[in-house]
Structure formats: C-alpha cells, structure tokens
Amino acid sequence: MTRVLVVDDEPQIVRALVINLKARKYEVDAAADGAQALELAAARHPDVVVLDLGLPDMDGVEVIKGLRGWTRVPILVLSARHSSDEKVEALDAGADDYVTKPFGMDELLARLRAAVRRAEPAAGAGGDEVVVETEDFTVDLAAKKAVREGRDVRLTPTEWHLLEVLVRNGGKLVSQKQLLQEVWGPSYGTETNYLRVYMAQLRRKLEADPSHPRHFITEPGMGYRFER
Amino acid sequence: MTRVLVVDDEPQIVRALVINLKARKYEVDAAADGAQALELAAARHPDVVVLDLGLPDMDGVEVIKGLRGWTRVPILVLSARHSSDEKVEALDAGADDYVTKPFGMDELLARLRAAVRRAEPAAGAGGDEVVVETEDFTVDLAAKKAVREGRDVRLTPTEWHLLEVLVRNGGKLVSQKQLLQEVWGPSYGTETNYLRVYMAQLRRKLEADPSHPRHFITEPGMGYRFER
DNA sequence: CGGCGGCGTCAAGGGTGCGTCAGGGATGGC
DNA sequence: GCCATCCCTGACGCACCCTTGACGCCGCCG
C-alpha cells in the first residue's frame, strides 16, 4: 500500500486530503508543522509527501531541503502563493511538483499518482543489493528469478516469499515466528511444520546437496539463516 | 548536455522555447506535430519532452501513450486547456507534469529542471531498447509493429499495451496487479481473467507453439514474464 | 538407557488459479 | 444504417499449490 505524508497547518485541508486519500486506499500520516513533518518522514518513510509551504514554525523550502538531505521521496508542494519566484525556489530546492490553492482534488490525485509512478523503479534500487550470488545459485529479487547451473528454477509464491525474507536478512538469524508472520500473515506464529516443509522445498530446488545445506541453515529451536 | 524535444504547432511558442533553452545550454529539437514528435523521439533519444496537447494531426494523449510504450523519458505537457479532466487524463497516460498556457518561462524552466533532475539516475541504466528480437518474432516498440515469419502481426490496442509493459520489463516478473493497473487503469487490480484472455491472444499471435509458450511465461500466483 | 521434543521427509486431500472457448454488447468506419 | 472489430464475461476442465498428517531420525536430558 502506498504511504502518503500530508503536511499542512490548516485542519480542514488536512481533513479533506486524508478522507480522499484513504478512500483510495492510501495509507496516510499527517503533520501540522515542519518539525513534525521531518520527524514523521524519518519514522514512517512515506512513498510521497504533500507539503504546504505556509507552515507556522519554519519555511516550507527548509522542509524540502531537510528531506532532500537524506531521501529522494517525491515531494508535491501545495501553496497559496502564485508567485513565479516561489515556485522556482521550491522546485529548485528539490520539490517534484507545485500546485497552487485552491486546487482540484482530481488534479492533485492525478499528480500524486504521476509522482508515485515514476518513483517506483528507484524504490527497488534504493541502495539494496537486488542480485545475490552464492557458489551454487543466483537470486534476482527484482526480477523474481532464481538460477541454478544456468537454468531457471521455478518457485511457487510461498517459496518465493520465504526466500525473499531470508535473503533480505542475509547472514542474520530470522526467528520462526518472524518468518511465519511475514510469509503467512500476522495471525500465524506457531505452525513450524509449514516452515519445515517449505525450507525442504527451497533446499531441494536450490542447494547442491539438499541433505547437507550450506546456505539455508537451521538454528535448532530458534529459526533459520541464509548464508551466501 | 541535456537534450530537449519541443513539440508545438505554434511557431512563436517554439521559437520562444528554443531561444530560452539554447541560452541555457540545452540541446533542442523541435517537432510541429505528433507524428514528427514520435519520429524525432525515437531518432534522437531526448532527455526530456515538452509537449503541447493541441496538435494538428493527433491527440496529445496519444503521443504520450506512444512514447510511454518504449521509453520513460520525462514528459512535460503544455496546454491551453485548464480543465481538470484533461490534466488527469494526460497525467494518467504517463505525463510527468502539466503546465497551462500562458505560462511563465521561469516556472517552466524550473519544472523542466525538476523533471530532468529526478530522471538522472535512471538515465544511466539506459534501458531504452526499442527493437526486441526473439527467435520467433520481432517487436518494434517505437513503430508499434510486430513481425513474425516475415509478416506483420495485427494486434489490438489492448494487446499492444499489454505487450509493451511486458517487453519493457523484459526478463523481469511483472505482477498481475501491476499489469492490470498499467493496461486497464489505476482502479483495476483483481480482474485476473482479463489477463488470462489477453495473454492467450498474445501467445496465439506470437508464439511458435501457443500451447507451450517460450516467451510469455506464467508464474502461477504471481504474474507474467517476457523472455526473449 | 529410555523418553521426548524438534526437525526432515513423504504422500495424499482439497482448493484455487490458469487456459480455453464461445457469446453478447459496445464502438467506430464505410 | 450496416458490418466488422474489439472488449468484457461466464463456464468448464485441468494442473498445480497449499495444507495436513504420519513416520523416522537425531540430539538432549533425565
């Protein structure tokens, strides 16, 4: 689900945005001033920020610069100012789009979709290693592809999900409960037999010698660990 | 140097843009209609496109769709229409920004800088392959043409759109939801029966043996993948 | 030495997703 | 106004995936 951070000090505008966004299945956080905005952005890692420039505690452009110091998240600026200079300043500070109030909700939502859409590929490349290689096989998380001895390995959705969690936590121990909850959902946690079955599948499809696994390692009583 | 493609049928607007852009050390191509725009885009690979929606030969939205079939180049739309519907349509078709005439040159240039800036990292990837060949058929994304055994293959608009998304993500798995949203619109996501029908069409028209597809591969429960 | 818990393996069942086909409705061109 | 084309929809059969249970093995502890 796409997460939006709404920053505005006027409650009625925030309310209107929140209602419209939630109705369209966005997850929404809201901040009323710049400090809160920067804090929430750091804590929640939104996929897009809607930012009013007229904030009580600090200049909106400073908020943009604060965000741009560490993230490329799309920033959509709202402002009552029509002045060209303000727009140029905000855009050059790192904003992605600039909408003047009063704005049409349809247009705003369309601009929001556009901003999220073009940020999509960058999200996958966001510093993470997408391709993981071991001596025996290769996993491409972006393409959802596993290759062993030059041939593609077919994995079922559940197998993929499990493999993904393990690989993303590469080297670290992942507890059984955590695996169950991430793959099967939050209401699971004790069905360790699922793990046994699917770990066996993964080993059979990827390990060179499934009975003596080198990459999918069992930590008895605790969980599993992926080692390259 | 940044290369800009300007598309507008009004000579004085083109002239104003060209002068301003060249003064700021952009390299500029200009097109007066949609057909010429698509042609120049394919030939010159601009870093950003400035597109007037009111063209003499075709609807501006069609130009956007034509470009989006094979490239993610930023598209900045110019238009005299202030209607919200027009903006939404253009943005959802794949435009990155929408500026209404009359526009301030400073603002336009700032929006252009913003569009170019955020496209920068993706430019290095250079995934702009326009013609894709397989053992069994050839797809030319720019010319919107598919050839199999020396003959042109007729594809319906929806079939094309689906093929485009798959080919553009060549080798990568594309989830069912992503396919549905890109081809049928943002409000779709669960109608997997559409996909089944149209994937069957594509396979029937392009695969050598439609019942044993080699290029349009199903990943059960997850999505589809194009392999050359 | 015997019991016990955790793990790996295997096989079978029920359910779900996928491919296929055909028909109705909408749309656009002549 | 007619006709062709394209999109959507439903039904059906099949293959595959998830789940579940049983069984044997190993290490640990009493």
Automatic annotation (TrEMBL), chains A, B:
Chain positions found as 4-aspartylphosphate: D52
Domain of life: Bacteria
CDD domains: REC_OmpR_KdpE-like (cd17620), trans_reg_C (cd00383)
UniProt-listed Gene3D superfamilies: 3.40.50.2300, 6.10.250.690, Winged helix-like DNA-binding domain superfamily/Winged helix DNA-binding domain
DNA-binding region: 129-228
Domain named OmpR/PhoB-type: residues: 129-228
Segments forming domain Response regulatory: 3-116
Stored InterPro entries: CheY-like_superfamily, OmpR/PhoB-type_DNA-bd, Sig_transdc_resp-reg_receiver, WalR-like, WH-like_DNA-bd_sf
Pfam families: Response_reg, Trans_reg_C
PROSITE patterns, sorted: OMPR_PHOB (PS51755), RESPONSE_REGULATORY (PS50110)
Keywords (A to Z) from UniProt: DNA-binding, Phosphoprotein
Protein name: Response regulator
Organism the protein comes from: Streptomyces goshikiensis
